[in-house]
Design goal:
The chain is 69% helix and 3% strand. The protein has eleven helices and two strands, in the order αααββαααααααα. A hairpin with a 3-residue loop joins strand 1 and strand 2.
Length: 233
Amino acid sequence: MSDSLRPLNRPRLYEQVVQRLREHVADSGLRAGDRLPPERTLAEQLGVSRASVKQAIVVLEVQGLVEVRHGGGTYLLRESLEVEPVEELVERKRRLPDVLDAREGLETKLAELAAQRRTDSDMAEIDAALDAMRAEIEAGEVGEDGDRRFHAAVTAAAHSALLAEFMRTIAREIAESRSESLRQPRRPPKSLAQHERIAEAIRNGEAKAAASAMARHLRTVSRVRLLDWDPEA
């Protein structure tokens, strides 16, 4: 059979609900911080089950577009619900665990070496990255550029050309995992605090403490809603 005549994929019902919610937010002029209608109301108005509405809300939550407050409803985190295709979410969910494993293996060693080898100029760049991330968060952003600068500064401070090259080969995947982590509710300030502990261990030349602090940080990075999501549920 010609590949062009392969079976058509039908949109899952919850994907259609996501599209309707996107249209509702745009048409209603809802803004970040506003609450979406209750699941029961949405199910009745859309003529679908509450399970389909709940699945749609999870897709929006996974992408950092809404926050579900236990017993308190669902609130917009952004001005619009511009969602990624479900297939892209599924692919990112598939590769994320491998990326996180690689980051833990590489970056804990980099933090250990940075504590042993860092120079004053290395430490100055680490501190500058922390300042940049702090300023971004205080301005209401997630601190993604400061986060990138911090990890790059730790990598440079390790003075290991081969490990730095390994990091460059997965830079795109690392950026993806960074974005995934920082979009979690209340995550940016927690990540900043963890960066500060890593930096302090590096400043003091405490190699084991720096590696442990980095490992704890990367375990936090790995706790994202995407990995708990079942697209077929």
